[in-house]
Amino acid sequence: MTITDLPQPNPGRARLLGTATLLVVAAGSAAGLFLVPADALQGEVQRLLYVHVPAAWLAMLSFFVVFVMSVLYLIQRDPKWDLLAVSAAEIGIVFTALALVLGSLWGKPTWGVWWTWDPRLTTTAIMLMIYVGYLTVRSFADDPDKRARWSAIIGIIGFVDVPIVYLSVLWWRTLHQPPSSPRSMAGEFVYVLLLNVAAFTLLYVYLMLRRYRLAVAERHVEELRLTRDDGRIT
Amino acid sequence: MEGQPSGTPFMVAGYLITWAVLAWYVWRLNRRSADARRALELAPATPHANE
Amino acid sequence: MKSSLALRTWAILWKDLLIELRTKQSFSAMVFFAALVLFLFGFAIGPDTATLSRLGGGLLWIAIAFTGMLSLGRTFQSEEVAGGLDGLRMYPGEIRAIYLGKLLANFSMLVVLEVVLVPVAAVLLQLEPWGRFPLFVGITLLGTFGFSVIGTFYASLTQHLRARELMLPLLLFPALVPVFLGAVNGTTLALAGDPLDRIGGWIRLLISFDIIFFVVCVWIYPLVLEE
Q: pTM of the entire structure?
């Protein structure tokens, strides 16, 4: 499978998707900020959950996507899986970091502290570090095939590890205090949350499309540089 | 919680950060895409001998 | 073919242990480094023996983890220097024997380190493992095995990466969180007493982790060394 054969997303369709995404995300934020009243108990800060929960959901979805792409790459050795994997990893890091920051911002007025070692928050932080490890390995590996293979292995091991990490932190926290995390919502709040989850998922698809296209282009550039440097024809 | 500082500034900060980060990421994608496009245009004709 | 896998594993394990035995300097360096880490903790936390004793399980395992990290980096060093890995790879037979042999070598060396380190920690941090000693030993072995399973695997994977010394800890520590929590909490409970009988949960966690990752790493290992 040569680099030139990689499937390319249609640019026109991407622009359409981008506009639609922008509108839906804006609608979601507007609904979360203005459409629903503030929560009776938590007050205004509860509105943060309309962005925190979708971000956390996308962080985990992306992690799963990295895993699936990694498995597919190791089986088929088709470069497109590797490029999809790195796209999912990079987007995943953005949403993971965002989820952590938003979680902290939610926690400070609610619990009085920036960080509580809550099992979900802590596991998300560890997940962030696994993502960072994945991308760092890629930046230190020059051979594209080895880079793809090694990061695929890390993507798989990392994914297997995260549930165990969660269970271990959960058990650890259960010993000291019962876990306290955002509880489920009532009534119209759920609809706004679902709207935002849908909006962010659409955003995720758009970002994956864009990032994958970029990955293909950069792979072409790299291939040119490699063939030029050592005269090796691929 | 009574006695706790108001959550509103945190909420506002959270939304602003979210939009800022997402906008920044899209901007970065655009930048890198433009760079890659330029690099591909500047490159000499590639000797793809295996086609 | 099972017996040839075992034979090759044993051969690699034996070779590595012999190398370690002949050059005892690296092992004693490991011991002194670990002790040094414990001293640093003493300086950082202060000479309050009650506090140090209470934190003792955690401090001991940080010392083991850091020392283990350094020694892991050298797992494949003897092969790299002499080009021996290519020779091992070309040998008809299981590539997995390389991983198994290295795993057992790392595990053995860490266990020997712990045999020396635990008395030192007991003295410096006022620990008393003698009360529930079998439990303490069991937890230590399970934790060390988990560390060795993932550690050897990632040591092999990062062998040819730039900035290897940085990549190994960066990859290893997040993956090791369950082992670390299990070992630290299990050790603390074994040392300080366990009125609510929590230790069973930690032991189950360590065993699950060890089994799952042993299977996954052994299975995937040939992909790491692929040319």
A: 0.88
- Give the mean pLDDT of B4-28: 89
For residue C177, list chain A residues with Cβ-Cβ distance below 8 A.
126, 161, 165, 168-169
Residues A114-160 pLDDT 10s: 898 888 899 999 999 999 999 999 999 889 999 999 999 999 999 99
Q: What is the ipTM of this complex?
A: 0.86
Indicate if the pLDDT at residue B11 is higher than 80. Answer: yes
* A54 within 8 A of A197, measured Cβ to Cβ: yes
Angle between the C96-125 and C133-157 helix axes, to the nearest 10 degrees? 130
The kind and range of the H/E element at C174 are: helix C164-192
Q: What is the pLDDT of residue A39?
A: 74
Which range, of A101-110, A169-178, C105-114, C171-180, averages the lowest pLDDT? Answer: A169-178
Q: How far is C54 from chain A (nearest CA, A)?
A: 15
Indicate the burial class of C212 (C-beta count within 10 angstroms; 0-12, 13-18, 19 or more).
middle
Residue range C179-195, pLDDT digits in tens: 999 999 999 998 887 77
Q: Which chains touch B (3 or more CB pairs under 8 A)?
A: A
So what's the pLDDT on residue A181?
55
Could C167 and A130 be called an inter-chain contact, meaning their C-beta atoms sit closer than 8 Å?
A: no
Beta carbons of C8 and C97 less than 8 angstroms apart: yes
Q: Is the pLDDT of residue A162 over 90?
A: yes
Residues in contact with A103: Cβ distance below 8 Å, sequence separation at least 6, in sequence order: A52, A56, A121, A124
What DSSP state is assigned to residue A39?
Answer: B
The residue behind tokens 């979601």 is A28
Chains interfacing with A (3 or more CB pairs < 8 Å): B, C
DSSP string covering A142-196: -SHHHHHHHHHHHHHHHHHHHHHHHHHHHHHHHHHS----PPP--THHHHHHHHH
Give the Cα separation of A200 and A102 in Å (integer). Answer: 15
Contact list, C220 vs chain A (CB under 8 Å): 153, 156-157
Question: Shortest CA distance to A153 belongs to which of B4, C41, C157?
Answer: C157
Show me where the domains of chain A are located.
Answer: 12-178+188-230
Which positions in chain B touch A6 (Cβ < 8 Å)? none
Contact (Cβ atoms closer than 8 angstroms) between residue C202 and residue C185: yes
Query: A43: helix, coil or strand?
Result: strand
Pick left, alpha or beta for residue A182 (phi over 0 → left; psi -120 to 50 → alpha; otherwise beta): beta
Nearest to A47 among B5, B11, B25 (CB): B11
Question: How many helices (H) does chain B have, and how many strands (E)?
Answer: 1, 0
